[in-house]
Amino acid sequence: MASVTAPAPSALHPRAAAFTEGARSVERRIGLLFAATGTVLILLMGVLGLIMRLTQANVIDVSPAWFYRLLTLHGMGMITGALIAAMGALWYVLHESVPLRVGHMLASYALTVVGAVCVLVATLVGGFGAGWTFLPPLSFYPAGQWPVWSESLFFVGMLLVGGGFFVYCIDVLRQTTNTFGGLTGALGWRFLAEHEAQPPPASVIAATVIAFDGLLAMSAGMTIGLGLLGRTYDSGVGFDLLVSKNLVYFFGHTIANLLIYLVAGAVYVLLPRYAGRPYEVTKVFVAGWGVALVLIVTVYSHHLYMDFVQPRWAQIVSEISSYASALPVAVVTVYSMTMLVWGSRYRWTLASTLLYLGLMGWAIGGTGAVIDSIIPFNFRLHNTVWVVAHFHTYLMLTVVVWLLAFIAHLLERDAGRTSSRLARTWTVMLLLVGGFGLTGTWFVEGVLGVPRRYAIQPPGTAGYSLVGSIFGILFALGVLACVAQLVSLGRAAWAGRHYVVAERVDSWTGTHYGARVERDTFERPAVETAPWRPWDVPLAGPVQIWFGAAACVVALASFFPQIVSASESSVRYHHLDHAGHFFLGVVAGLTIASLPAVSRRLGDRSSLGLAGVMLAPSAMMLVMVPRFYEPLEHHSFEHALYHLAMAGFGLVTGLAASRLGRVGGRLSAFLSVGMVLLFAAAMKGG
Questions:
Q1: Per-residue pLDDT reduced to its tens digit, 258-309
Q2: Which tens digit of pLDDT belongs to each residue from 128-158?
Q3: Which has the closest alpha carbon to 559: 586, 578, 587?
Q4: 25-64 residue pLDDT tens
Q5: Average pLDDT, integer, range 405-419
Q6: Backbone dihedral region for residue 12 (phi beyond 0: left; psi -120 to 50: alpha; all else: beta)
Q7: Stretch 361-382: mean pLDDT
Q8: Gyration radius of the chain over CA positions
Q9: Which of 398, 415, 595, 684 is deepest in the core (most CB within 10 A)?
Q10: 499: β partners
């Protein structure tokens, strides 16, 4: 009895085999886990969005209180769902060349999902409805609509989601910089300066930029989140409203922006598999992403043009960044990808079609964003639904479409086929007509001045909401049609992964027949993790260690009686003095743990390091409120112990940061001190 195994047909371009690695099971499972979880959450939030649109169209009757609950959940839930799925997509392609840790990825998943559940309970059960922006002091004046526990739970949920992304970014940054020779190597700057012959892969450069900027955004978000959480149990906490608003929008806008870049990092790997051409990293590409490293975190303040007390230099930087941010997107990604497809005999499948359509959504949505950032237009458009239009364009028609394409790619590879042309055609038509029809009505309403975030729209505008709802239903039908095809591909992929049709010969009759037998699976070896080195610490060499010791001596000034006494004249100065104590502890921890003998003894404890750099600064800021320190001011010994505790939190943070490598350790230590300083700037007496 003989058997011959026929090769499974491929949905990819025939020439893609030359540069496409076989996916390992861990990559498929993690990718599908994150993508499926995020997509389900996105679909649920989309239903809430349709309910709100139908409410504004006077088709259904949802009370304003419930509208703002749904608005809050929709905003936070949609961003969280897209973030989970996008993290999985980038991790899937990045894991081919970088030894990312599965344990850290699962920890990130757990934190993010638990955070999403907290937000769900806080809004639907607790009634919290202050909006995803949670701008102080609105959250603390509920007018009887929500209890204090729902505020606390919402802020805890936000902090958990931020913590999950923080874990993800630290792991990505540490592994890319370790694998490609430091931060400048992972960003491709050595290649740009012709110090290296070969650049890193495009996905590595994108992931390094995303991880770096993501850590900055998460630090700002967690700082204001901890301050708001402190206000729930101490009414003496006050806020500098302008600083607080800057922190909120720096966090919110940057994360919403990074969603596109996260998925774009995966598209650099996925789209060439259907074009049959590898994506070549050029100096223009490296320079573009180098510029994006700065632009991503500086465009947020175009949301604050109307805050006339905002520093003028911040508005000028924002204006320049808003214009300039379109160039890397248009030249590096959209243009280069369309040129990769041009003349390539592109393999049109469900995944590849969605990948290509996403480029259009990014270009159109980005154009709407740039128009809104022009100051004369901004004064007319920014508090209108024009803003809703532009970010829904690139979220719905770029991020969501690309995430569906990612899932389709995973299933097509395992199934060895794609869906029918008729099904793909109807799906694309529904997505395009429904998606651009919905966002188009918002663009028109924005020009007419219809405000955003209003449960009750101005008289005479319900017709626009009705038309938008109809287009929204068409888009939802397109998504459902796509999901139906994914389910069919999933069944075929399951069979394709585990079984293969083998030709058999009957020993009695000699006839040939096909039988389904278990497939012999072969997985390429995992990327080897670089062995832990005791000298891979933030302060390397005697000079840097002596510099750390000198910084400790200078930071001791924060304990001088004159400084402590002077700091008690104001809440902000008191917090600033606490930041000095914390800084002393951080530098001391880094210096001690960077000593070769101590570093060898501590060993490779990256998981504990991640926990330490997140928990220690958070705990410090949670107790850095008047409720805890004001009763101690008349008791010298207890007050001194409190100040020592601030340094103790810093010491734990410094020791933990030392376990995260040179780049990750330095950045996490720097950000932890920055969080405490921002906390001092944003918080004031009640």
A1: 999 999 999 999 999 999 999 999 999 999 999 999 999 998 888 888 877 8
A2: 999 888 888 889 999 889 999 999 999 999 9
A3: 578
A4: 888 899 999 999 999 999 999 999 999 999 999 999 999 9
A5: 91
A6: beta
A7: 87
A8: 27
A9: 398
A10: 518
Minimal CA–CA distance to 89: which of 44, 166, 16, 32? 32
Cα–Cα dist 587/585, whole Å: 6
How far apart, in Å, are the Cα atoms of 540 and each of 122, 221, 352, 664? Answer: 46, 31, 47, 14
Q: Both tokens of residue 442?
A: 């918002």
Q: Is 517 helix (H, G, I), strand (E, B) or coil?
A: strand
Distance CA 388, CA 159 (A): 25
Q: What are phi and psi of 593, to 5 degrees?
A: -70, -20
Q: Tally the C-alpha atoms within 13 A of residue 533's C-alpha that lie toward its C-beta.
A: 10
Query: Is the domain covering 14-503 a CATH 1.20.210.10 domain?
Result: yes
Specify the amino acid at residue 480.
L
In single-letter form, the type of residue at position 478 comes to G
pLDDT in tens, 544-597: 999 999 999 999 998 888 888 888 778 888 888 999 999 999 999 999 999 988
User: Under DSSP, is residue 305 helix (H, G, I), strand (E, B) or coil?
Assistant: coil
Q: Amino acid identity, residue 588?
A: A
Within the chain, which residue ranges are assigned CATH 1.20.210.10?
14-503
Q: What is the DSSP string of 333-386?
A: IIIHHHHHHTTS-----HHHHHHHHHHHHHHHHHHHHHHHHSHHHHHHHTTBTH
69 vs 84: CA distance, rounded Å? 22
C-alpha 19, offset from chain centre: 28
Q: 174-225: per-residue pLDDT in tens?
A: 999 988 989 999 999 999 998 888 999 999 999 999 999 999 999 999 999 9
Q: Phi and psi for 451 in degrees, rounded to 5? A: -75, 155
Tokens of 287: 């320079």
Distance from the Cα of residue 514 to its chain's centroid: 48
